Amino acid sequence: MTDHPRIGIRPAIDGRRRGVRESLEEQTMGMAEAVAKLFSENLRYTDGTPVECVIADTTIGRVHEAMACADKFRVNNVGLTLTVTPCWCYGTETTDMDATMPHAIWGFNGTERPGAVYLAAALAGHAQIGIPAFGIYGKDVQDGDDNSIPEDVRERLLSYATAGLAVAQMRGKAYLSMGSVSMGIAGSVVNPDFFGAYLGMRNEYIDMSEFTRRIEEGIYDPEEYEKAYTWIRENFKQGKDWNPEDWQFPEKHEDWWKFVTKMTLIGRDLMNGNPRLAELGFEEEAGGHGAIAAGFQGQRQWTDHFPNGDVMETILNTNFDWTGPRQPNVLATENDSLNGASMLFGYLLTNTPQIFSDVRTYWSPESIERVTGWKPEGRAAQGFLDLRNSGSTTLDGAGKATRDGKPVIKPFWEVTEEDQKATLEATTFHPASTGYFRGGGFSTHFRTEGEMPVTMIRINLVAGKPVMQICEGWTVELPDEVAYTIEERTNIEWPTTWFVPNLTGESAFKTTYDVMNNWGANHGAISYGHNGALFITLASMLRIPVNMHNVPEEKIFRPKAWSLFGTADLEGADYRACETFGPMYR
What we know:
- The protein is α/β, with parallel strands linked by helices.
- It is globular.
């Protein structure tokens, strides 16, 4: 991503000259500079470079300065704004009026000047004109000459900026639909109204025959193909063929490996473009589709005849390949665009690749003991969800990268050679089930390491309008013989993640069964870390109500106007606020 959206910082000030404004200039601009430093030192874009900020040329005390700031932001690709002030300012004269990006205000909590008064007035103005803004206000009073950022303010600033950058990085990009609807899955009915009105994205579409055309006509880099094929064959361990003997085709395996390697190169080129293709005489194909996310239909029109897309999806979703560590792509199995959007949210919020899984089975403690003879213990004692996938997911989902001795999923720029080796060692590639995939291919298998904090989310559409589900929890490990027994009952050749949600004892989180029973679709996107609060902040920016979550109330951060829709029933208030303000891009 070379067109980085920037954070615009607006230092607002009391407009009264002849002593008042002049006394506040240094403090106000100092707040702006301190926040810019905080953001650039703690936040990164998906390519690993530090986040960039743009500060208004002057403090903003009257409307002409607000307009000059807006002009500067437009030419500097600002995608979200933060207003900072230690004092009273003229609310409507200094308000940011752009309704197509997120806004926040940090009002300094000090007694010398009424920054909190401006904060309240400006947020009321934002609500009145239908442009909601986030309010940031420290709980403790600071001295007027205190230039530090309190920890509670720091946390809010980073949460707002992280979610706002996700909004900005989606805007203007594309979701590429590779094929159409897979096996009647609702999520792969790509809805342009959702992507356009709510995410600011465009939709691109190709028929899967574009893969065969490019393979047959050699529209890929032949030198890179040889390098990729050699790396794949040296590093991807081929495991046992679990098919019945009369469904096994060992004589086709090498051709399948060559085919799926070419699919991988072509899938990446379709999403991102590849200038090398222009050098080879394929200038039109070199441009790509500007896709920040994509989905591959596969089943059944493709997989009934050609090798499946599992290897392509595995590699493109992973933090590394034959080139070493590099940015992962977001590629959804079965063209489930809603899970693709869920994966995209997680990727932009964490800069880490996402696990794509079927939310396949709830295993109660009683069922586990009856089937395996093992009485579950530890986190697994409450039962778990079997997250398994008939397509594929990121290799990083194996959890073999480590930080401080613990399993993690890292941003690509932190991935070491040891992480890559451990991940590849833990993964096997099995000939695909030719009952499911008549055209053959390979399926990826690993078991996710236990004791990783993760967050599973899902966007669903209800009569055309989006809602989001969020579930924080943990991965768990099972004894080998128990894991094998459970895997053997379904598809042992697929990626396996055992997931235990954090239970609250209420509503959809009374039991693990209730989580499964209330999940809105057959798929979920899983990110590393307990990031539910960030997803809630992002959802509020996009006007997507959250219908189910287990995030502690004190961590929830939404625009101030949400409290105007009720304070007792926060879920209901969220729905009413999202309905009233409507999608950002419509």
